[in-house]
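Dear Dr. H.,

I hope your travels went smoothly. While you were away I took the liberty of generating a structure for the chain from your last submission, since the lab meeting agenda had it listed for discussion. I wanted you to have the full record in hand beforehand rather than looking at slides cold. The sequence, exactly as received, is reproduced here:
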Amino acid sequence: MILSASAFGYTFTFKKFKNVPVGPEFFPRALALLLFICCLALLLTNLKTNQRNKDEAPTLSLFNKDMQKAVLSLVLIVVYALLWNVVGFLIATPFALFAMIFILGKRNYKMMVIVSFAATAVIFCAFKFLLGIEMPLGFIENFM
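The corresponding predicted structure, in token form, is as follows:
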């Protein structure tokens, strides 16, 4: 709750733009507010059921398959973020999507390749042509 409140407060430092009805602070504020509400709901639910539920909560373990998938996904996202500006969106994204689908347990490789490349193309075109936002191309930018 403290993290969400501090994130909400930090949004007041964002740059203001004239004649823009929704500024860059809107989405982070909405997420911080939603996070605060969810944390509050969890806290109240836990306090309410604490008297009735005396069972021990399951502990987190790296031997748990789901926990391993979560940690591996987090590592993949960090590596993807680090490589995004170096190799570019068009190269990093299909590999990251393919790896994420693999981590989630799918093994239809033909479909995984199709989905990875199709999703990358759709996202790239949506950002470039619909939203007018340039995606980083990495070293490919030198050839264009």
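Two observations you may find useful: The two ends are 47 Å apart (CA to CA). Residues 39 and 65 are 26 Å apart (CA to CA).

With kind regards,
E. W.
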